[in-house]
Amino acid sequence: MSIKELITRPPVTISSSASLKDCAKLMRKENVGSLLVVDGDTPKGIITERDIIQAIADDYPLETPASKVMSTNLITADASTEVGDAALLMTNHKIRHLVVTEGGKIIGVISLRDVARSLGLITTDASFW
Known about the structure:
Diverse_CBS-Domain; globular; alpha/beta; CBS-domain; 3-stranded mixed beta sheet; CBS domain; CBS_dom; CBS_dom_sf; CBS domain-containing protein
């Protein structure tokens, strides 16, 4: 199975100048754990729930722009990448969200949970826990 099959929606994006509070609100509204940070149409990085929690723990104000907290080293994989290979890539880079590209364009973001579920490592929906 290719990772393209795991994509359920286009990536949710936010401006690099958006505040941490705005990022958290958008994540909650869209029910996602990461946002692709952009300047116009150009991807600049990714910000995750974990990044926001760490920033708050480090006493960053909620008005801090996403650009100060985001990861700028975007790890990407082609849409045709097999799920098992994506799992290895994510493990090797110690990331929980992988940016998926096709023809040089970003088409989605998958999470470690998406990968684990597709590999049968998560057999039930744990959302009720």
